[in-house]
User: What shape does this take?
Amino acid sequence: MVNKIVRNQVPASGAVLSVPLPIMPIATPLTVVETHLRGSIANLHLSNDGDGNEKSFWPAINEGFSNYERFWQQVVVPTTKRIESPPDAQSRIERRAGVADDLWLITYVNYSLFLNLMAAFEHLSQPLTLSVGNFYTHLASACDLAEDFLLRVHLLVSECDGQAVTFAPLTRAEFSQHLEQWYEREYTKKYPHSHAKGKSMIVHVEPRDKIKQQGQAWKAYKSFSVPIREYRNKVVHDVQIGTVRVGNINLMPKITKIKEYAALAAVQNAITDPETIKRDFVVREEQMFSDFRTFKERVNALWEKPTDDLTRLLYEERNPLILQKYNLRFA
Assistant: This one.
């Protein structure tokens, strides 16, 4: 289609070597009727048009996280060949030509979160000896991906709305001030788990123009994700958490109590006091199922605004930049 060749001169053994580099053709925007597009994607569902993982595990994810499919229908499907290929085409799940990298990456972060939930569910339904640690590792990774997803969508929507967000570098004085504030606020809490043990200490320095998440959905998510990450760090990076076994039932410290039972001796002391066990411990499987269910509910609420914002840009406003990123043209 394009026959031009660029000669890239690369020195090799004292000589000049001409390497032909093809110029990639620019994909022509796909022209569609907006009402036809919306009507066709409304009939697509993960159960019949997702990939193999989505078809198999969607029933486990759908309960509590139905907005995953809504985002998939409205935002993900138009980036794929589903809107230009026959129903039986094996290439339907592939990325359409010309779709922008930042938009495509958002869809893949969204899918990566699904994969971590899928893996967490596997450890719930088919538990192994160390499934607790693996379960919370996947759940915490899903938290990381959820926040990355929200940030990337915010940057994309802001750009399309003509309010592109840029993160200016900190000056030396600003950076030093952040470190001083972090030291006053966090050092004494981090010291017993890092420097006191001869380990490195990770310091988190926020950018100058930090994006502030607003709303009850974000607050509810943060109140859940912080202890999940603390629990993950404990079960993954430290000695095994003590378990109290009562017959065939395994009791573990509640998520909110993990810091109090980081040492095995604390668990052993708790065994002698039934009231302490009743107050601070929970059936392990019940805790895991509860956390799995709560996580889905929290991210389901978070997915409302990104889905609404991108749907607004594409279908309602027909924003020129979002259409360019989708490589679409509405007839």
Notes: Residues 5-189+286-330 form one domain.
